[in-house]
From TrEMBL:
<dbReference type="InterPro" id="IPR020946">
    <property type="entry name" value="Flavin_mOase-like"/>
</dbReference>
<keyword id="KW-0274">FAD</keyword>
<comment type="similarity">
    <text>Belongs to the FAD-binding monooxygenase family.</text>
</comment>
<feature type="compositionally biased region" description="Acidic residues">
    <location>
        <begin position="501"/>
        <end position="527"/>
    </location>
</feature>
<feature type="region of interest" description="Disordered">
    <location>
        <begin position="492"/>
        <end position="536"/>
    </location>
</feature>
<dbReference type="InterPro" id="IPR051209">
    <property type="entry name" value="FAD-bind_Monooxygenase_sf"/>
</dbReference>
<keyword id="KW-0285">Flavoprotein</keyword>
<protein>
    <submittedName>
        <fullName>NAD(P)/FAD-dependent oxidoreductase</fullName>
    </submittedName>
</protein>
<dbReference type="InterPro" id="IPR036188">
    <property type="entry name" value="FAD/NAD-bd_sf"/>
</dbReference>
<dbReference type="Pfam" id="PF00743">
    <property type="entry name" value="FMO-like"/>
</dbReference>
<keyword id="KW-0560">Oxidoreductase</keyword>
Length: 536
């Protein structure tokens, strides 16, 4: 590591911000590619990201573990259930970090307070809560769902008991025998409500919008099956490929043919009818928007929990708190001893965006103020040289494993580093996305998002920002994304050298033209995909 010559601080080739699924994945792939000069800055005391932060009762993943795990670190014979719980997923990530020798690169307790691009030295200056770093390349792996939101509620300060968010569970709060109010009915709530109903004296569920809920086909994986996966890894790979392939097929319905989701809607209605006999409750639990518009929730325990006599579903948001009394938007009054907010995350306005300042002196948040979050291939942003975002804008998924997207972006990261090296010695050159390439990519995204179920399904969701633009989801298959980021297209980037703080002017060929990967994407959208090996 070379010294920055500016007080305490060290220089690295790559600084990764965050040690969750994406940051840890980056560390593994960097290590395996022979990059030794990198650091992972993590504000928490351990790895795991969202799987370390979310410890609410019932916390689990609604994507099968065989698919929700790195293809390069298979764990098939060790998952105890088909859909793993938070502890098992966290333990998996810790085991991967150990097995891959990532420890020496990890710096815990380092919250990144500021990242500023230095155009003269072509590096990022990173100020953490402990020390300063400089890095030729910064990888932002801070997670799209890491900052919990508690909505402003009149009188909340007057509440006479514990109040916390599902992602910051207060394990010191006594829930046994208490009346617990849960605000929200998203993916977190459907998991924690059944667990709470098993211990609390009463649950008051404030539901602003009913979710579509399908049964979750979870099961314990028998020892014989695990042994099979262990002894014959090809069987686990085949099962993973099957899980992947089925989800890829369904993606087309989400992105191009929302009417084709009607079968899922019928299944979800049958699930509701079968589990909830009371017509009044059933009607309150019936969504009035197309299935898939919000995340489809998987739970076989949610409806059975709601029909219990000590669980009350209030079909309105929480409007006001007065002492222990809670008043709903429809005027319903109830009492509670504890309030749990399962109200989601700041997905379209990530706080880290306020801390990253690019080459023109603007923060990411300022850059995105008009028009929302925009990146090139979900990964790089014009005006932010040598910054790669993992799970950046429009890389989220509605129905399959995010790990697939992360792994595709890691290919892009390694190719980016290869290209940088090809262009010059460390510190002598940087790359910045051409604004025209970013515009072109986002125009394509917007056009495709316009016909997805997320935009047309008649719901409001965190997928779309305050202006209604979908800045979070990828409107295609994971295979398509993989192809789009397999290689860095040099034509989409301008080269920077220390002498020239400004990028070279855009040329005719780069401006607003269809790039090679976009052309591939178009070809696939038109029904002519090349066969690509499944990510097993
Ligand atoms: P969420 O999906 O954003 O759900 C938030 C809930 O809070 C919604 O029901 C929302 O109602 C409600 N809400 C928000 N503000 C409110 C207010 N002011 N008053 C009343 N209700 C309010 O959050 P989440 O459940 O934590 O899930 C977030 C994401 O995390 C998921 O979509 C998923 O991507 C991920 N996640 C994944 C898993 C998994 O198993 N893989 C598990 C948990 C979470 P409206 O619907 O009316 O907006």
């Amino acid at each position: 590591m070379r010294s920055t010559g500016r007080g305490p601080g060290r220089h690295v080739r790559v600084a990764v911000v965050g040690a969750g699924f994406s940051g840890l994945g980056a560390a593994v792939r960097l290590g395996r590619a022979g990059v030794r000069d990198f650091v992972v800055l993590e504000r928490a005391p351990g790895v795991g990201g969202t799987w370390r932060d979310n410890t609410y009762p019932g916390c689990a993943c609604d994507v099968p573990s065989l698919l929700y795990s790195y293809s390069f670190a298979p764990h098939a014979g060790r998952w105890p259930r088909t859909f793993s719980g938070q502890r098992d997923i966290r333990a998996y990530l810790e085991a991967v970090a150990d097995a891959e020798g990532i420890g020496p690169h990890l710096r815990f307790g380092r919250e990144v307070l500021e990242m500023r691009w230095d155009s003269a030295r072509l590096h990022w200056e990173i100020t953490t809560s402990r020390e300063r770093w400089t890095a030729d390349v910064a990888v932002c792996a801070a997670g799209p769902l890491s900052e919990p939101v508690i909505p402003p509620i009149a009188g909340l300060d007057s509440f006479l008991g514990p109040v916390f968010h599902s992602a910051r569970w207060d394990h010191t709060a006594e829930l046994r025998g208490k009346r617990v109010a849960v605000i929200g009915t998203g993916a977190s709530a459907v998991q924690l409500v059944p667990a709470l109903a098993a211990t609390a004296a009463g649950v008051r569920l404030f539901q602003r919008t009913p979710p579509w809920v399908l049964p979750r086909p979870d099961r314990r994986v028998p020892a014989a099956e695990r042994l099979l996966y262990e002894r014959l890894p090809a069987t686990a790979a085949a099962r993973r490929a099957l899980l992947w392939g089925v989800r890829e097929l369904v993606t087309r319905a989400f992105t191009r043919l929302p009417n084709a989701l009607a079968g899922y809607e019928a299944l979800a209605r049958a699930h509701l009818r079968w589990a909830v006999r009371d017509p009044g409750l059933r009607s309150r639990l019936t969504p009035d928007y197309r299935i898939g518009c919000k995340r489809i929730l998987l739970s076989s325990a949610y409806y059975p929990a709601l029909v219990q006599p000590h669980v009350e579903t209030i079909a309105a948001s929480l409007a006001e708190v007065r002492g222990r009394r809670l008043i709903a938007g429809d005027g319903t009054r109830t009492e509670a001893d504890v309030i749990v907010f399962a109200t989601g995350f700041r997905a379209t306005e990530p706080p880290i965006a306020h801390r990253v300042t690019g080459s023109d002196g603007l923060t990411l948040a300022e850059t995105w103020r008009d028009g929302g979050m925009r990146a090139l291939r979900g990964t790089s942003v014009a005006g932010f040289p040598n910054l790669l975002m993992l799970l950046g804008p429009n890389t989220g998924l509605g129905n399959t494993s995010l790990v697939l997207m992360i792994e595709s972006q890691l290919d892009y990261l390694l190719d980016y580093l290869r290209l940088l090296e090809e262009y010059g010695a460390a510190g002598s050159v940087a790359l910045t996305p051409r604004p025209a390439a970013v515009r072109s990519w986002n125009a394509r995204l917007d056009a495709r998002l316009g016909r997805t179920v997320w935009n047309t399904g008649g719901c409001a969701s965190w997928y779309r920002d305050a202006e209604g633009r979908n800045t979070t989801l990828w409107p295609g298959s994971t295979r398509e994304f993989r192809r789009a980021v397999r290689r860095v297209d040099p034509g989409e980037y301008a080269r920077l050298t220390p002498a020239e703080a400004e990028p070279e002017p855009e040329t005719e060929t780069e401006a607003e033209t269809e790039t090679e990967a976009e052309a591939e994407t178009e070809a696939e959208a038109d029904g002519g995909p090349e066969p690509v090996a499944p990510p097993v």
